[in-house]
Structure formats: structure tokens, C-alpha cells
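User: Hey, quick favor. My workstation is busy. Could you predict this chain's structure for me?
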Amino acid sequence: VYQLLPAYGDHTAITDDHIKMYESAVDAFTAGAWEDALYLLDKLPVGDRARDFLQIAIALHNYAPPRNWDGIYEMSRK
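Assistant: No problem, here it is.
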């Protein structure tokens, strides 16, 4: 998951610490440590769409990675 950010120095609610937390959350998500990922994602600003995407992906799988989890989230074309 990638996220576009405003140019450095522009007024934004997203801080460097938020970016580090998000990157750590993605690493936890990929590694299958979804509880850790949720903990970090909960610390990010409400309305962060990349945060929302990962939280929804985790919820859709009942908060546990699939048995054959390889770190790749495949989106359906429905």
C-alpha cells in the first residue's frame, strides 16, 4: 500500500512519526502480525485512507491472516 503525501513543509496533519508508524504497521501486516499492525494503525489520524484500507482488509479476514498468508494481499475484482 502506498500513500501520496503533500510536499514537505506544506501544512499537514501527518507527521514524520505518523509515517514511521504507518511503515511499521505495513511491515507488521505483511509479516502476518495483524494485532501489532492494528495497534499502530490506531495511532494514525482518523481519515487516513491508507490506514483505513489496511484496517478494513484485516477486518474482512476476521482479524487473522489467512492460513496460507504470504504477505501479499490480493484484491478481488467484484
